[in-house]
Design brief:
Chain B: This is AP complex subunit sigma. Chain B: It is a peripheral membrane protein. The complex is a heterodimer. Chain A is mostly helical. Helices cover about 70% and strands about 0% of the residues of chain A. In chain A, a hairpin with a 2-residue loop joins strand 1 and strand 2 (about 245). Chain B is about 50% helix and about 20% strand. Classes of the chains: A mainly alpha, B alpha+beta.
Chain lengths: ~950, ~170
Amino acid sequence: MGSQGGFYQSKEFLDLVKSIGEARSKAEEDRIVLGEIDTLKRRISEPDIPKRKMKEYIIRLVYVEMLGHDASFGYIHAVKMTHDDSLLVKRTGYLAVTLFLNEDHDLIILIVNTIQKDLKSDNYLVVCAALNAVCKLINEETIPAVLPQVVELLAHPKEAVRKKAIMGFHRFYQKSPSSVSHLVSNFRKRLCDNDPGVMGATLCPLFDLITIDVNSYKDLVISFVSILKQVAERRLPKAYDYHQMPAPFIQIKLLKILALLGSGDKQASENMYTVVGDIFRKCDSSSNIGNAVLYECICCVSSIYPNPKLLESAADAISRFLKSDSHNLRYMGIDALGRLIKISPEIAEQHQLAVIDCLEDPDDTLKRKTFELLYKMTKPTNVEVIVDRMIDYMISINDNHYKTEIASRCVELAEQFAPSNQWFIQTMNKVFEHAGDLVNIKVAHNLMRLIAEGFGEDDDTADSQLRSSAVDSYLHILSEPKLPSVFLQVICWVLGEYGTADGKYSASFITGKLCDVAEAYSNDDTVKAYAVTALMKIYAFEITAGRKVDMLPECQSLMEEFLASHSTDLQQRAYELQAVIGLDAHAVESIMPSDASCEDIEVDKALSFLNDYIQDSIEKGAQPYIPESERSGMLNISKFRNQDHHEASSHGLRFEAYELPKQTVQSRIPPASLASTELVPVPEPMYVSESYPTTTVSSASSDAGSTELKLRLDGVQKKWGRQTHSPATSTSSTTSQKTVNGITQVDGSNTSNSRTRETYESRKQQVEITPEKQKLAASLFGGSSKTEKKPATGHKISKSSSYMVEKSHVPKSSMEIASEKKAPIQQPPDLLDFGEPTVQSNAPSVDPFKELEGLLEPTTEVASAKNHSSTAAATKSPDIMGLYTETPAGIHNKDDGDILSGLSNPPGTHMLGGTTRTQVAQSSKGPNLKDSLQKDALVRQMGVTPSSPNPILFKDLLG
Amino acid sequence: MIKAVMVMNTQGKTRLAKFYEYLPVEKQQELIRGVFAVLCSRAENVSNFIDAESIFGPDSRLVYKHFATLYFVFVFDSSENELAVLDLIQVFVETLDRCFKNVCELDVVFNYSKVHTILDEMIFGGQVVETSSSEIMKAVEEISKLEAASNAITLIPKSASGWRSR
């Protein structure tokens, strides 16, 4: 086809592409494509279409589908094309079906037979096309139909076929390991293939197999090592060289495999040390691919049994990565550092400033990678700084996916390493405030529990300090306009439980706030429910304390609203609140003991405390209880009886079967209170204790039943919901919990807590004094080693200053070269102009990595730059293709040659050896220039000039 | 393994899309749009890597390279090396360039099937099978030759009903 080719498609297709290219809106594009679909529908079903036309229609269909429109009407035609004798048509058919269909599509059945036939074809291209379809379209059921042929093809004389057969076979293994497990040894055989391409391809499935089961491939370590050695020693054909590296992709695959095999295996690892060390030495760190191999070496070294010498080389390579100014390399450096840090944690300290630079880089990818690294190296000493940074970043981004991730990481780190309660609560507040709807509800429950339990030490003062600080901060936060629901739930719960505990705030103040919350978030039932329960607690504590309860007017109106609410849950809570307010202090105290949310409830499953009562009732003529198992068929009767019984005991929805009549508290609590325990399980263990005896459920009215249904759902996510479901007894547990509650705990260790806080603050201050980065470095990499960090900074400064010198030096030298080169550059025809915008975006400006390299050897830098120019000049040979192989310098320059190209010849940089090649192509080689001009002329003929609405269409990739 | 290869221009128009795991057309479009949205928001002179988990689900990375008017995007999982994939893009584009001599966006559009052929020689079923540009070229040239030959023989159109009845 060549450059002149490609335009032999019909004018129609050309017009289609053109008009789509010029479409100004998605709607316009859609209209054009729909028109095209209509045309195709009509044409494709005409009889006697020439094959060439048919082929083009199918390509157009593929194109249409790529633009996101349904082309399913044409699938059958694509399937038919695979039956054709003509290779071209057949291949187009296969291409189309692999793009159109999936392995479960109905039409597959029409193809399997063709595939079978084609796999046996004499023409290897037909076989390849069929194998391509095998990869994509064969599912577990159809594997047996083609498996024998594919296995046979593993020994095909053509290496292209062997390669593809291996991949097809690998695909079978991925889809259904069991159906090919007896043939897996074939992969090992192919490893010894004469063709390096086939061997390289075999590494892919072997990598997968070894990932799954390391041990059965340990015997291959020696083979892999010797292959790697041969590759590194350039024993492979020249064709596999890439940017002067011998078969780098194969090296990378092999290193990956070795990393797996050597992991935790000293003996296997020892076999690898030499070759990996060799590669470290040989790798050319100035090319992208060389660095890719280096990176893979680091991964390998950090995975296999540690070897000090290799670790050292790895550390060197990492520092080179991190010092580079290429974002890609720094990214890899950070990643590699994260791997190596597990083995030698001390390495991080050398690179602290580089890490911080990455953290402050505008590049998001790099930033995130750095956060990942920080996450891995978090310790109690640096948790504050790291989490603060993470939260700052979390606030700044919009990407919900990553926000969730970073929020959960913050929470995890905070829970694991929190230096103080206060800090923990502040951190959590921040996380909730900014990512509340994204964090797991469990986190909220953990926070509530932490506030309720304290940090587990017997230190009541500290705990109550913690609580009042939480209350303070929450009251403050409540003034913010829009808070996430989960956070509001926590706030309501804490305010209800501890809002009035320290006497700082009056009940009316807190209840006022709670009412505001319920009103402000009136469409969130869960928050309202939490608010009502919190109100109930506040009032209960007031009553217990013997104060008179004055319900605020707004609160009253709120209650009235809730009493008539559509949400049964809210209704119940409102009724409960009403009921509680009407009780006397003693009763209220047993319902709502203050700060008892964490007390364990002892469950007397046998309900032994009721024995007296039962005895009493039976003596009075009541029916004895018949266990559920024994009363099949009698259900209705017993239910009826139960209801009868309840009606006697109190109003409405009674269903407690066994109650002590004298306990007013219990009898007056509406049974619905069960519900509330599920939603707010923590504060009312009391209710928990009353939960459903089996009979109650059956006798519950529809109302209660529905609530229960709903609440079950809620209960799923509740941390402590489990308790609620267990049938429990009331009185005994209530008292027990009260006594536990009443115990005053040892007081006096509060000093320790305040001390922690002190140090925390002092550290903070000290941190603020020092320059920002040093401070950050110090806090991240061990606040203790203050002495260590200073030399490090000094080092950096000296480095950067010399760097500056170098910088001013390098451009100058390259400028000279540039000026030398100006003339040939100007010559290229106008095509070059189109490419120009590319340049800025692509050429990573003057490659600073190179400069850093030059730092070490400034003279070589210049020399190499000169070298570039001479290469460029030398490449005026007529053979352009030859350039790839014959001018290694040009090739190897590709990325770091920007010194040249960044200044003088921007459009060339993005391609391999671009600088030199483009110039030569355009200035010295006639035919090619003509080609380009012809192409351009043709393009213009088609009616689209670069100045048309969409000139971009015609920009040369290479300029 | 490589999950997807996409080529799109700077305006977000898809020029080539190949997914190595089956995805319905709508999903493909959604992913392409997602990728493009991220690509446009990237500043210049930043890394070529993007964390793609929010678009493609867990364990997915994305490497892109910007050539003139086109973005070349490869999506893959942790079994590949980012820098190496960056060079794989390079190999792909180099091969395109050898094939089309100064490849431009139009070449990719009009030689749709040929671009697919080149890609198929490099990546097969989501695995990298060939990384040598000259080997790929050899294979592609051979295919073109044979196709041309077979095309010459069958230039006389057979009726569609003819092969339908076979």
